[in-house]
Amino acid sequence: MNKFVKGFLSLLFTVSFTFSCKEIKTEKTQNKETEEQLVSKDLKWSERMALSEIHRFPDPTLLDFRDTPRWSYTNGLVLQGMAKVYEQTKNKKLYDYIYDYGNRMIEEDGSIHTYKLKNYNLDMIKSGDAIFYLYEKTKEPRFRRAMDTLHLQMEGQPITSEGGYWHKKIYPFQMWLDGVFMAEPFHAKYALEFIEDDEVKRIMDKIVLQFDLIEKYNRDSDTGLYFHGWDESREQRWASKDTGLSSNFWSRGMGWYGMALVDVLDYIPKSHPGRARIIGYLKNYAEAIVKYQDVTGTWYQVLNLPKKEGNYLEATGTSMFTYTLAKGANKGYISKTYLENADKGFEGILEQFITVEDNGVINLNKCCGVAGLGGNPYRDGSFEYYVKEIIRSNDPKGTGPFMFAAMELNK
To answer: For this protein, what is any one GO molecular function term (predicted)?
Structure first.
């Protein structure tokens, strides 16, 4: 190896090492600053959770315990919570964290790092809420272009025979409760902001239709609860050959749907006939879930089988139900008496799931890590499947809704 090559490699190593050290130093500095805020201020639970998430994941692209950056709904969920907290506290650390995600994931031409439109995956719409927030703050054209791409996906999303969005292209003819939360609040907000009048009504009609179809197919008339998935084709092993429905009432599945109901109402115009129907759906939903609220204030992983061996009190669904009831009551969609259930739910979260470390960081424990239907390895939607999926702490599908709930209840 000649002297020039040796010298170049030495320089390259030195530069790489220096940048690496700077990155580590910056991350350590950020964590120290975050810890100082956590222990030095009398924080509300929402801000404490937001700062705890930053402490756990200094890089916002790695939320959800990732090794490499990925455009995902979990990032959008947590960042949307942080945006709500920032608007109340003006803690710049929160805004900088949200912006860091958009800055890293959205290229100058508006392309979205790791996103593939051709997958037609409703989950991928959710982080659009964080980008919408950043666009409102900065007016950077790249953020608008990224949202245009997500709108383009919604315009081309494959549908059932009645117009219901497939959850993903790889899950044909299937509607999941998750999907309406991932896509519809963002799409409604986008339409109001960027689409012309006649087209707005067309999009709102499509959005309301998704809720109408969930009510038509996924709701159980006996309990008022909702089955996780419906397969129009009846081809999936998890689907009943008679109804196309999955076989259980999964807590977080219903949690997604509840949050979709209260959030989409922020954008459905009062003049739209579907708005009253959605409020009616929310009233029935609230009436149903409080019947299954445990004495601790929390809810079980499989809602209607609390005494079945293996079932457990679960944090993500509980946080979602608490938020749904609190926001629904605060907005006047449902009776104010449901605030009692929401308060009981939040106190249950603190008693059953929250632990506090010496440095002020808080943990949300007993979170179902993941659950779905079909796929490989195959997920059959059985009771045993839901209770045997991984349980972990600080899953973003819980920490985000925890912030939502804490904000609504001003905890």
So the answer is: unsaturated rhamnogalacturonyl hydrolase activity
